[in-house]
Design brief:
Structural class: mainly alpha
Length: 75
């Protein structure tokens, strides 16, 4: 039995609301496969990584909520 036949066989026993979920998931899979792959040479992606690398390692690991809200922009 091929995969499509197995899916059809299983779908026959599902109630209507679950069939709608299956159909929604099929739409998701199709949309995901249509999305273009990220180009490794994309300048925007390179700029994003450069910005990330620039700030990497700056966080001390300590988070004080009060200091978070004590910024000039929030006063």
């Amino acid at each position: 039995m091929i995969t499509a036949e197995r899916i059809l066989e299983e779908a026959r026993s599902l109630p209507e609301f679950e069939l709608r979920e299956v159909l929604d998931f099929v739409g998701y899979l199709k949309a995901r496969s249509r999305q273009p792959a990220v180009d490794e040479g994309d300048e925007d992606a390179e700029a994003d990584w450069a910005e990330f690398k620039e700030g990497a390692g700056l966080w001390s690991g300590k988070f004080v909520r009060e200091e978070c809200y004590d910024r000039k922009i929030l006063r």
